[in-house]
# Entry
Amino acid sequence: MGKYRRSEKLRRYVICMKGQSMSDIKILVATHKEFYRPENPLIFQVQVGSALADHHIEGILHDDKGENISKKNRSYCELTAQYWAWKNLQADYYGFFHYRRYMSFKQYFPVTNGKIQLKRWTPYLEADSLEKDLSPYDLDEMHMRHVIEQYDVITVLSEHMDVTAYEQFGQFHRIRDLDRAIAILKEIHPEQAAACDAYMQSKYIYFCNMYIMKREYFYAYMNWLFPVLEKFESQTDFSGYSDKEKRVTGYIAERLFGVYYTWLKQQGSAKCAEVPYVIFHQNVREFQFGKKGPRIKVDMRKVNQLIPAGTMRRRMVRRLLRKEL
# Structure
């Protein structure tokens, strides 16, 4: 979208909205510690796992008020914030970010005939600081409203991987857990079996569990998601799982979002769009070569500059590393 055309559309939007009541947009940023809070009336921080925390962070929302599943945060991850919003917040639009991951509204890509009209894309960007780097991504109220109010569902761009969504899960988690969740989903919603299979066999994966939905779509998604997760929990023996492995319910939900979003696109009734997301202040990550090999620290920002996410180079490096490891 050209700069002039985009600016003109925003100018017309501002003129059109003068004197009109604006949509109630609430975007919750899941955090478990004190972090910079941007000055934006659409963005609210929520302390996830508040019921398990030593103290409540002052001046932000907490997921242990009202009807909640805050005590399940160690297994449900950021879903405790989504459940809390569903049961306790009133809004026209509900959105969910992470404390170091926000959507960027500088560019947005409408879904047409089930897909965005791009051949290649980089799903995420990186920035030094949340406090300093908001303006280049149009993370101000008016730009955000201009994009959000055009659509029913907005989520992040998918990442093109060298393996399918199903295979990628198995690289990091117990594949039988995903098998169980898929079986439960198909039992409860047999009409979505085709969408489930299509997403699980796709190499375009939606990560982060970040989205913005109009109220009716958000409620429908919550009513769809949590019964599947509850049944998954009741059928899973978590004894013998490490603390990290016990987070599998949250990881399963990330894959289930991809299934639900695929199904929505297939239906064709929801107006959808996708945007890049921004990772703020990316940490240096440590990698180990083999089970007993040396551990090395890697600056992921430099790696991502050399081999951007979603590129063929990135997929080739992943394949080579898997052979070595």
Q: What stands out?
A: Residues 215-234 form the longest helix (20 residues).
